[in-house]
Amino acid sequence: MLIGVLALQGDVAEHSAALAELNVGSLPVRRPEELPGIDGIVLPGGESTTVSMLLESSGLAEPLGKELASGLPAFGTCAGMILLSRAISDGRSDQRCYGAIDIVVRRNGYGGQLESFECDLQAVSLGASPVHAIFIRAPVVEQVGPEVEVLATIQSTPVICRPGSVLVAAFHPELTDDRRLHELFVSMIDGSVPGGLLRRVPEDETRKAAESVRRGRP
Ligand code: GLN
Questions:
Q1: Where are the domains of the chain?
Q2: Nearest of 91, 40, 37 to residue 68 by alpha carbon
Q3: What is the pTM of this model?
Q4: What atom of ligand 1 comes closest to residue 10's alpha carbon?
Q5: Is 54 in a helix, a strand, or coil?
Q6: Is 172 a catalytic residue?
Q7: What is the CATH number that goes with domain 2-214?
Q8: Do 41 and 73 form a contact (C-beta atoms < 8 A)?
Q9: What is the structure's pLDDT at 215?
Q10: Cβ-contact 38, 7 below 8 angstroms
Q11: 10 Å Cβ neighbour count for 120?
Q12: Which of 109, 129, 125, 142 is nearest to 216 (CA)?
């Protein structure tokens, strides 16, 4: 398996290192020619407006969009989640989002750099121990579509979501030692969800979280 890491800006090395820890090879993706042959792609955190501009100037914007539309598995963290979203409620007019996941996000929705924070998430879907999550100028998920599975929330706001072969996190799993989310992404690609790693959130809980988000930010 070879996973591409969009390498235009942001936490590229950290994601590659996280995949290497799982013995999964990665390829930094900077040019359209590098897209064929990868089995999935990580869109790292960074600055979504900058990545958006670099996608255009590198010629990757359209080819990546085509790959995503044809089902290339993708894992977006923070700015990467913004790029994969359906809509950005306060995005710049020239900012790109791919609609690979039916969520609406608000950039810097938890506040700016000074409001960045860390917390332990009750992500029961990833096993018993909490996920330590680092939020840096993180986007808030304001709406989720009916197909989106919410894997973890903070005060009813989704922070890990997944529909099909797309996984997004509002925080930075590549900055901690916890490899469960990368492992989940890998298992989503090769179909081997290892026993105990992914315990689906009971449907009721997912529905409640999704409904409270649709009603507006808690
Ligand atoms: N606020 C940034 C953006 O809009 C995301 C921050 C991050 O990735 N840590 O892209």
A1: 2-214
A2: 40
A3: 0.88
A4: 8
A5: helix
A6: yes
A7: 3.40.50.880
A8: yes
A9: 53
A10: no
A11: 10
A12: 142
Q: Could you say which DSSP state residue 202 is in?
A: P
Residue written as token pair 């977006």: 76
CA 194 – ligand 1 centroid, Å: 31
Two structure tokens written together for 151: 């894997």
Q: What's the CA-to-centroid distance between 1 and ligand 1, angstroms?
A: 28
Do the Cβ atoms of 48 and 82 come closer than 8 Å?
Answer: yes
Say yes or no to pLDDT of 201 above 50.
no
Backbone φ and ψ for 64, nearest 5 degrees, come out as -65, -40
pLDDT at 204 over 70: no
- The tally of CA atoms less than 13 A away on the side-chain side of residue 98 is 32
Q: How far is the CA of 156 from the centre of ligand 1 (A)?
A: 21
Q: Cα 133 to chain center, whole Å? A: 13
Q: What is the pLDDT of residue 179?
A: 96
Name all residues whose Cβ lies below 6 A of ligand 1.
45-48, 78-79, 82, 107-108, 136-137
Q: CA-to-CA distance for 159 and 81, rounded, in angstroms?
A: 10
Higher pLDDT, 208 or 50: 50
In the sheet that 40-43 helps form, which strands lie side by side, from edge to edge?
A: 25-29, 2-6, 40-43, 74-77, 166-169, 157-162, 149-154
Backbone angles phi, psi at 40, to 5 degrees: -175, 170
Number of H helices, E strands in the chain: 6, 12
